[in-house]
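Continued from yesterday's entry.
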Amino acid sequence: MRAYNLKKIAALANKDVCHQNFGLQRLRGNKKRCVGQIVLKPWHVNLAHTIHGGILYSAIDTVMGLAAVAHLAGSETILAMDVKINYIRPAFLKMKRLQCSAQLVSRTGRFAVVEGVVSSPKKEILAKAMGTYAILRRSPTEKASWQCY
């Protein structure tokens, strides 16, 4: 079976309006590691004057999903079943950009487990996440939502 073209999927994800609105950009990856960055904006700041955890969660979920997709055949797609995130240090607007990275931990016939990290510009770990994704098989007539396999 043919694998997905990860470069095309990352290029589409970089143009996604949702990703642009929460500041996620520069998505790229390969089978070993996927990365992206969050460009911080004033509207990401919460009442505690830190970056809202939902921004970090959305970014790392996206990068982890890309890492899972890197290990799929063309007839497969994923569905997030569970993502657990631990916030370790606060992120602040003055950091300007945060890095997200993810890599596959395990892939079976039905599940992919991926781990991810959000880091500061000084390489401090701000959050760690672990996600379990169901691997679903599409019928030959169905296309992936990103239409580029």
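--- second protein ---
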Amino acid sequence: MQTRKLDYNVSRQSNSYVILFSVIMTLIVGGLLAGVSSALKERQNEQVALDKQKQILKSVMDIEGEEDIQALYASRISSYVVDINGNQVDAGVDAEDVDISKEYKNKKDPNDRFYPVFEFKGESGATEAYILPVFGNGLWDNIWGFVALDTDFNTIKGVSLDHAGETPGLGARITTSKVQERFQGKKIFSANGELVAVTMLKAESNPANLLDDHHVNGMSGATITANGVSAMFKAYMGHYQGFFNQQGGQNASLIQE
């Protein structure tokens, strides 16, 4: 009996036992880590989607406190995708799933991209604004946002802007209401129907005669960021020119990046 017990103890310490134990533990730990990673990734994706919904809504309305963003979005926003010519894409592509940042970074031909359109509905159910995404470059990294146009496809009702790494107190100010409110009421078309979008001027406090329908005050110490905002506004409003024409908006030449 004693000999058998000794043999059993020795066998437990054998290489095969150690290897088998290691494999089993690796599989268990690996499975647990994969499960945790999957759960975290799913949670992260949910947060990204929620933030996008919030940014879309903020372009046209005040979002305060702990409002139910998902419920508000579901009741006020309808969405679809159009091509460069303004034709609606019916190939099972959801506007919420279109990542314009990837298409921009991959330098995809604007003619081959998808363009999301988010219609904002009033309490009566009638469309009050068309919200369109914009994307570009700031000083240090990418900048992006949403532009809400009135039903005339010309007047800006509001914007929401964000950034990846602009300088705090300078370019990062594009996220503030003080800067974003400057765009309200501005026009993207000139009187003769040319798409000119809206340009941020260099100075912070410009004379009134310079602040016409197509210009807003810039940001002191953040000229490059301001130029990036102006460039992405003009580029993406140009990409949606076909859509404006389809909807009976102003006529203008198609502007592309």
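The helical segments are 2-12, 15-58, 69-76, 100-105, 177-180, 223-239, 241-246. The CA atoms of residues 208 and 216 lie 10 Å apart. Will compare against the first tomorrow.
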